[in-house]
Automatic annotation (TrEMBL), chains A, B:
Organism encoding this protein: Pseudobacteroides cellulosolvens ATCC 35603 = DSM 2933
Gene Ontology biological process terms in this record: tRNA queuosine(34) biosynthetic process
Superkingdom: Bacteria
Binding site for substrate: D94, S95, G96, G97, F98, D148, Q191, G218
Protein name as it appears in the record: Queuine tRNA-ribosyltransferase
Gene field: tgt
Length: 376, 376
């Protein structure tokens, strides 16, 4: 039996979006779900208890970073990632592929694997699909990912095709190398750039390998939104109904809602934590640059509609002061709020599916957030 | 009636140290007390709730910094510092004197006041005793401090004498300028370098002004420990029994205990937060450089005897990883622990006074912490 199981609760009568639950060895999470990113075995600025307090049900951590530092051997010796970082709910680790291709220097891609230099100390490393799985087995996350090549945007058809075919061969090797199927579920990753026939080819090839879940990778990498939606619309219907579907690297409010509308169950992104550290917060009325001088004497909460600790206890003026003064509490509060904003958004998405009105919810949210003004 | 009142609970039969309570408009705190420092209206890395959770009963904030940023007018408009930073327990603000003399450039000391340049933007400012009180009235702390000159160490007798006499004249002007005596208690500051007769002169002059509390300033600025102890031994007996005594800028475990032994009620220092950010933690067995490679695979708590959140939930190996990786949670956890360590130390000091055994406690603590080895 697979380590994770998808339970479909209902489909939205208005849109077909799915409400469900994913059951893992460390408990269940409700879908559609947003997964906060804890790159280096910590969601930047947040404690595990704070994450639980804002209803984070699953987090993601990055294999590439943990392999580099502290090293998967130390995490394994600690009893795995859950124990190391004191998080007893589900964890997903990526394969490291995306970081190898985006962060490291001088990468050299061969059929056998990828040679690259560390972004930390310049040391040389060689990662194969087997090695990516071995590291993830040591880390011990509930969901692990096949090692793939994430191609840039734009990318020629021919290269995208060659790359996805290699990604399929690597996925097969990952599956063969995976030793811990009872406790960790290995997901395959559909690639293919923005070419419909390549997405279809990739999905079909991966389906033959029968993974317990499927991700859609290589999107939200700079392509127009409509291209992403098109790719989802041609790929999702090919994926099995009884398995979770994960859209990688997506976390802006519009993409989360549009993804859920198209049948996606899981999302992750550094957006809420990253923009929070830079002083931008998400509110029910749109983005707010809290560092702006106009908030210097604004003693209202960042988002009066928000139930988070930051909005319940501190003013825009105070948080602006903390950020201007370089104080840690400032980035803690903006991060806390942004994560809660997206997790609450997903709660609302799930409720809208339950109530058969996700399209209405989408329209109301877009109007209030200001997306309609932006796109006009 | 003064805004604060000191209640003597008992004296240690073994040492004469005092156990007491200070009552303020925002509640009481037990003494001897350590006050965590929240320079910029935040104790670095900590939320107000976390501070309450480790039994911080009063905190200190810095007038100089708040005057510079965000400006005392904004804090006043927020309803004062308690409201601005969401801390409803007692607060003490210093006068800004120490920072004017230690942080700013090109200061020019005249009888009327001090001209100096901001450490942030180089802007020119002129602070008088009256201005220091006006700013502190706007900030609204429960205890505010007279504007003094904190002389460096070493300092010639003649300058130290001239300076303390000006500090007395400034203290008189501060008292006359203080408009909010019902809600804020103004403390005088005894100066005089390491000269006994000057300390005595300063104390006597200030006593004539009848402040509701007295601080001892200009110590722990580089002089040998014995000089500090000598100054306490000649100054404290001159101070009134029915008012709180505050030793400024002191926060190492040995100084806290030795100060309490000599009749001090209040202490403050950036030491626990500052060394925590640099990766040094205080433990019952002495200081620990948690960044050291030897802790890379040490899965025990920082201090197995500690009851703080960090020690109850995370290992040395994990915290070391966080610090090496530059993660905010790392400095949060070391800060949290160090503050709890000192606040717990003060709880133990108070218990030892209650049990008439502060000298025994001092000897046991020094032995376990390793101070005896260091001084041998």
């Amino acid at each position: 039996m697979s380590a994770v199981r998808y339970e479909l609760i209902k489909k939205c009568g208005q849109t077909g979006a799915r409400l469900g639950k994913v059951h893992t060895p460390h408990g269940s999470f409700d879908t559609p779900a947003f997964m906060p990113v804890g790159t280096q075995a910590t969601v930047k600025g947040m404690s595990p208890e704070e994450l639980k307090g804002i209803n984070a049900q699953i987090i993601l951590s990055n294999t590439y970073h943990l392999y580099m530092r502290p090293g998967e051997d130390i995490v394994k010796e600690a009893g795995g990632l859950h124990s190391f970082m004191n998080w007893n709910r589900p964890i997903l680790t990526d394969s490291g592929g995306f970081q190898v291709f985006s962060l490291s220097d001088l990468r050299d891609i061969k059929e056998e694997g990828v040679t690259f230099k560390s972004h930390i100390d310049g040391s040389k490393h060689f990662i194969t699909p087997e090695k990516a799985i071995e590291i993830q087995n040591d880390l011990g996350a509930d969901i692990i990912m096949a090692f793939d090549e994430c191609i840039p945007y734009p990318c020629e058809f021919e290269y995208a095709k060659k790359s996805l075919e290699r990604t399929t061969r690597w996925a097969k090797r990952c599956k063969e190398a995976h030793k811990n199927t009872e406790k960790q579920a290995l997901f395959g990753i559909v690639q293919g750039g923005i070419y419909k026939e390549l997405r279809e080819q990739s999905a079909k090839e991966l389906l033959e390998l029968d993974f317990p879940g499927y991700a859609i990778g290589g999107l939200s990498v700079g392509e127009p939104a409509q291209d992403m939606y098109d790719m989802l619309e041609c790929t999702v219907p090919l994926l099995p109904e009884d398995k979770p579907r994960y859209l990688m690297g997506v976390g802006s409010p519009d993409y989360l809602i549009e993804g859920a509308l198209r049948g996606i169950d899981m999302f992750d992104c550094v957006l809420p934590t990253r923009i929070g550290r830079n002083g931008t917060v998400l509110t029910s009325q749109g983005k707010m640059i809290i560092r702006d001088a106009k908030y210097a004497r604004d003693f209202t909460p960042m988002d009066p509609e928000c139930d988070c600790y930051a909005c319940q206890n501190f003013s825009r003026a105070y948080i602006r002061h903390l950020l201007k003064a370089g104080e840690v509490l400032g980035i803690r509060l903006t991060t806390w709020h942004n994560l809660r904003f997206l997790l609450k958004l997903m709660e609302n998405v799930r409720k809208a599916i339950m109530d058969d009105r996700l399209q209405d919810f989408r329209n109301e949210f877009f109007e209030a957030f200001g997306y309609n003004k932006i796109t006009k």
